[in-house]
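Weekly puzzle thread! Below is a chain. First person to post its structure in token form gets bragging rights.
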Amino acid sequence: MGQAGSMTGDAANSAGGADSKTEAHAALGMPLLRIERVVKKFDGFRAVDALSLDIPAGEFFALLGPSGCGKTTLLRMLAGFETPDEGRILLNGKDIARVPPHQRPVNMMFQNYALFPHLNVRDNIAFGLKRAGLPSSEIGARIAEMVALVKLDGLEKRKPDQLSGGQRQRVALARSLARRPQLLLLDEPLAALDKKLRESTQLELMELQRRLGLTFVIVTHDQAEAMTMAGRIGVMDAGRLEQVATPRELYEAPHSRWIAEFVGDVNLLEGKIETGAGDHPTMARRLAIATAQAGTIYVAEPRQPLTKANLCVAIRPEKVKLSRRAPVSDDARAINRLEGVVTDVSYLGGITSYKIKLDGGAVLRSSMANTARLDFDAYNPGQRVVAWFSPEDCVVLEQ
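Winning reply:
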């Protein structure tokens, strides 16, 4: 890690006071971090466009979005490596937008870790502490604390090239935490790790964050990573926050078609409101949406009134059930029944993914859990099926 966010000696020595200020600020209902209409332009291009966001103390927050959406630029402004052209960045009520990186109680852990190759584990962790002017006894105690915290015992004398990728990541994390920052920024910190190590490290980071009670802001383009680790996720596109929500809310109640497509897999059916749902008890509080390639789809009435004629019905693949024959006619969960042919089957271990070409022309995807080791009832390409799903499992999105 580079020296992002290392504090001055005075700032480092007042870490205990900063903690009490953070608690007092939280008690007043104020967020630890408040971003107010921040703008950052490069050659006239708005990388971050009038973005506002509140993050309370102790939250694990994720910035998720495609490459070039502005999430790393925003993180660099929080660290002090970039200065906003407009707006404010308040940390504990103080505007730090133009405070130099080394004077902020903020640390940043980079994707490539940026460890010093000529220094061993102990000296890499100690580097920022020495620059802050801490006494030797305190430095030694802090190093021992960090080594134990990230489970590097016995590796203190090794240099980075003698460590595995996961161990280097732990050294970078220990160095970031050694200064006891109020805010820790993580820029794609697990990207260099293989899948299994990345998954185990995600859990370790979550446990570490809970134990320390620090505020973490992580930037990632990995949806599963963001949804696993973060309490809330902000999805960015073209420099703006499109939606800020918990992982469940983001997945189950996306605000737009773009969010629905970006977060996870989804079936989208274009349509328009057709008529009232009728008087049958199972049709109460339903809307009928006329689609060109799937016929009439019944959906639960949205909480917000619809203002546009052109609509999109979104259904997640795991909500689409398959049967060889139509479900019981009075089953309210199976109002939507669409017949078609299986065209593709992908076995993915825990689930099997199916593509179904409906008689009306639309293609639906269904994900079915593999609950038995040998599933003799699995569906095969060319087989006719009934795809069914509940109105409550549909989300109506305006185009």
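Puzzle host: Confirmed. Bonus trivia for everyone else. The chain has two domains: 9-257, 265-398.
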